[in-house]
Write a structure and sequence with these properties.
By secondary structure, the protein is an alpha+beta fold. It is about 45% helix and about 20% strand. It has a five-stranded antiparallel β-sheet with strand order 6-5-4-3-7. A two-stranded antiparallel ribbon has the order 1-2. A hairpin with a 5-residue loop joins strand 1 and strand 2.
């Protein structure tokens, strides 16, 4: 908005020389027609600013939610995710505790041996559903729930700490 007035050094208001009295009178009449005092207009400006900030925050949240929803949609159809969740909760499928070719560490006879995983198989239909983990060079598998954290570890440090405790 272009101002029609100026303030002098003492705070007195003057009409700019480039504005006619008629233009100034129309601007003053428009202001008076609002029925608002200057303090009320200042308060309205403050509320509008707050509302803009709140709206911007809500838009940011919606955009964030939309991005998260997109990431979930990328996982696949919701019905398939429900099926997998149900199968997991029923113990029919699982996520392998180790990765193919991952190093694991076995404590045996007071020493730590490094082994490499060559297979992990989920056995859901045994009396105790569990992971069978095969390592290279071994003819026998580990039943993960039985040995993990006792004689087989994911890091050498964990295995060595077990030896120190023996």
């Amino acid at each position: 908005m272009e101002r029609t007035t100026l303030r002098g050094p003492d705070g007195t208001a003057y009409i700019k020389s480039s504005v006619t009295r008629r233009e100034a009178a129309h601007r003053l009449a428009a202001y008076e027609d609002t029925g608002l005092e200057p303090e009320e207009i200042t308060a309205i400006i403050g509320l509008a600013s707050e509302n803009c900030a709140k709206t911007a925050d809500k838009i940011d949240q919606l955009l964030s939610d939309d991005k998260e929803l997109g990431e979930y949609r990328a996982l696949g159809p919701i019905d398939r995710i429900r099926e997998l969740t149900q199968a997991y909760s029923e113990g029919v499928c699982g996520i392998p505790p180790v990765k193919l070719h991952q190093k694991i560490f076995r404590v045996l006879n007071g020493k730590v041996y490094e082994e490499i995983v060559c297979s992990a198989t989920w056995e859901p239909f045994t009396p105790r559903p569990r992971w069978k983990v095969w390592v290279m060079g071994s003819g026998l598998p580990y039943y993960w729930g039985d040995v993990f954290g006792k004689t087989v570890f994911l890091t050498r440090e964990e295995a060595e700490r077990t030896l120190e405790g023996v």
